[in-house]
Amino acid sequence: MTRVKRGYIARKRRKKILAFVSGSRGAHSKLFRTANQRKARALVSAHRDRGKRKRDLRRLWITRINAAARANGVSYNRFIQYLYKRQLLPNRKTLAQIAVLDSNCFSTILKNLSCDEIG
């Protein structure tokens, strides 16, 4: 029986995986089996950390809003409670940017709240 030369598909797949892990150290960037394991681990970590980044940023925004609100004599909880009572759904990212970049504007927002609703 004559020899059959395999196509380029498997080589193409292996080269793609090795290119993905090209920044790794040692055998992880040279040997296919360890490179394949490294790629799988990297994708798992990336998926996990995308959710973690969202949580971390939300915590940061809440901390910034709380600091700005307390500087004006109101707690974060009361501030958000007021916004929900007025059916204003808070965008925490935007509120945090206002609190950091334009504290006068944030103070104006808090001053426009009625005193009996904030308590």
From TrEMBL:
The name under which this protein is listed is: Large ribosomal subunit protein bL20c
The record, for InterPro entries, names: Ribosomal_bL20, RIBOSOMAL_L20_CS, Ribosomal_protein_bL20_C
Q: What family, per the record?
A: Belongs to the bacterial ribosomal protein bL20 family.
Q: Which GO terms describe its molecular function?
A: rRNA binding; structural constituent of ribosome
Q: Which UniProt keywords apply?
A: Chloroplast, Plastid, Ribonucleoprotein, Ribosomal protein, RNA-binding, rRNA-binding
Q: Which HAMAP family match?
A: Ribosomal_bL20
Report the record's Gene Ontology biological process terms: ribosomal large subunit assembly; translation
Q: Where in the cell is it found?
A: Plastid, Chloroplast
Q: Does the keyword section mention rRNA-binding?
A: yes
- Gene3D superfamilies xref list: 6.10.160.10, Ribosomal protein L20
What the protein does comes down to: Binds directly to 23S ribosomal RNA and is necessary for the in vitro assembly process of the 50S ribosomal subunit. It is not involved in the protein synthesizing functions of that subunit.
Which GO cellular component term is one of those annotated?
ribonucleoprotein complex
Q: Which PROSITE patterns match?
A: IQ, RIBOSOMAL_L20
Keyword Chaperone on entry: no
